[in-house]
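This entry is listed below:
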Amino acid sequence: MASLGTEAEREPLLGDRSPGSREWNSIESEEHYKSRWRSIRILYLTMFLSSIGFSIVIMSIWPYLQKIDQTADASFLGWVIASFSLGQMVASPMFGLWSNYRPRKEPLIVSIFISVAANCLYAYVHLPASHNKYYMLAARGLVGFGAGNVAVVRSYIAGATSLQERTGSMANTSTCQALGFILGPVFQTCFALIGEEGVTWELVKLQINMYTAPVLLSASLGVVNAILILGILREHRVDDSGRQYKSINFEEARADEAEIPQGNIDKVAVVATNVLFFVVLFIFALFETILTPLTMDMYAWTQEQAVLYNGIILAALGVEAVGVFMGVKLLSKKMGERAILLGGLTVVWVSFFILLPWGDEFPNIQWEDLHNNSVPNTTFGEILTGPWSSPGDHGGRAVGCPIEQAWCLYTPKIHLAQFFTSVVLIGVGYPTCNVMSYTLYSKILGPTPQGVYMGWLTASGSGARILGPVFISHVYTYLGPRWAFSLVCGAVLLAVTLLGGVYRRLVAFSLRYGRTQEQTS
């Protein structure tokens, strides 16, 4: 029995098929095949545009917020950024449930037009006489609410692909998502040429400038996406072997699905995969959050340098992720998804272990707020002497590790070689874990309607993106990188332990059901 599971995972149930082969024609007509993949590719575009909606304004939110409402501070900026994930977390299970009982065009179209309306609201948040920051908060929250359609996209692709096609399709979906995150800031940079004033369309009181042009583009692309979905997307459902249901009519397909033994879904495997996905998104969210303060503290980068260099690093990580997604598609043909997920978590653990500070070199210390240029007494042992930065060194602003963070006095510097090695490994481990989590999850659920389940998975990822920044900002500020990265390593080890505990349960629904049938016969 153990060998059956291994073989089935390494060779995904069906041999290599093409639309023109005899085996393929006995399962699915060429016309159905083309229609099915046209629909899937439209949803690749939907995933890409959903990511664009998040990232296309991420670099300009803060200056735009300061421009429209002088009462907004940095803490409110955190709420504005988090509102996207909050909206997505609330909406994902709702849209997923909707897609289980109605044609999936409906939640997709509604969600897209919510995002279009929210982007238009964002373009007008400068008009009210007061409370402008709350209008921006609502706009970004509604954009995130519309992005809850990610659950519908994932559930559709899971239900419209065979086991053999699933890993590649999920990798393509994640690639489109990654490209959206990469290209969004690029579009934003291009629109910066318009400037802060831009032009005003007096008839509709619309200012088109570097802050509003990106969301207007995003809204326009959303309208195009909705038109394509209405014109091209069709309901397609196939079982794990690739055999289509008796009819693509929604109600008849639902009747076919009702015959599937729902009770055989392994709830333990479902919950475990949600937890693993939460950890994966939690780790990457805190990495994005800590990147700028870490580099400014360790390498005495100015704000301008940190924004530029870290922007380049994140863009490079996005490009690396696309390559990893493509590599995972090939690797999955030789190895099981469970083994690849375990390898990805191991790489993530190594990447954060490498970041642990060591040695006898210490970061520059800011003494901007010190009186008499003296180091205050601390309870941490000896006072370390080393490089110090004064406000006059960098255009009136001190750089380096702030003295208010007491750990700066005794924590060794993270060497650049450590930092870049860790970044490269995170760029391998995170996308691997991301796509394998989705793929395993969809296979565990099998041909049963996956809308609600995918909604919960998306919601767990959104929750991780909310909690990750809060966790790391507090631990890093008060305890330093040694504690922060040690706790991250501990969290990854717990995830690896969990994966080991449920390893045998993370198998495809059809394989698990087939084993049951074999044992009872």
